[in-house]
Amino acid sequence: MGKKIKKTNACRILDGLGIDYEIKTYEVDEEDLSAVHVAQVSGLDIKMIFKTLVARGDKTGIIMAVIGGGDELDLKALAKASGNKSVEMIALKELLPLTGYVRGGCSPLGAKKNYPVYLDNRALTLEKISISAGQRGMQIILSPQDLIKAANATTAKLIF
Residue 158's closest CA among 127, 118, 128? Predict the structure, then answer.
């Protein structure tokens, strides 16, 4: 038996919905919180690791974009998908007060408020994806369809 993993809000949401998922823990490097590093230390393929970015739309306010770990968010595409004219990334200092999450541990599930979630449609080509469980060093592996259901996510092309 390994050490007992403390369930995060994201895990509890999935449990409440009866959604199957797997937890993957890894060693955190405070100097490198990138998805590429997560892939290296967790043994997961970078293609299946999805990061959650938090942005502010001029009409909708706070929104979350879930994109591939090696990809770059196209703000114009996110604006279009979310019904905004423009979207900008929030300042890092706003992340914790807005979501309850820290950089490197931001999950599209279980934030302080139910913000709209947009999932890059490339996720739909994968059997399983990995998202942050809501704390550094912990990933949730689940099907993209289950994430869409749990986060009430909208899919769209969000990357360049």
Answer: 118
Cβ atoms within 10 Å of 77's Cβ, excluding its own = 19
Number of domains in the chain: 1
Inside any domain, residue 3: no
CATH number at residue 144: 3.90.960.10
Residues 38-70: pLDDT tens digits? 999 999 999 999 999 999 999 999 999 999 999
What per-residue confidence (pLDDT) applies to 5? 67
The CA distance from 136 to 101, in Å, is 9
148 within domain boundaries: yes
pLDDT of residue 2: 46
The pTM of the full predicted model, rounded to 2 decimals, is 0.94
Give the integer Cα–Cα distance in Å for 128 and 79.
26
Arithmetic mean of pLDDT, 108-135: 97
Q: Read out DSSP for 44-81?
A: --GGGBEEEEEEEETTTEEEEEEEETT--B-HHHHHHH
In a domain, 37, yes or no: yes
| Containing structural domain, residue 140 | 9-126+133-156
Q: Which two tokens stand for residue 116?
A: 């709209």
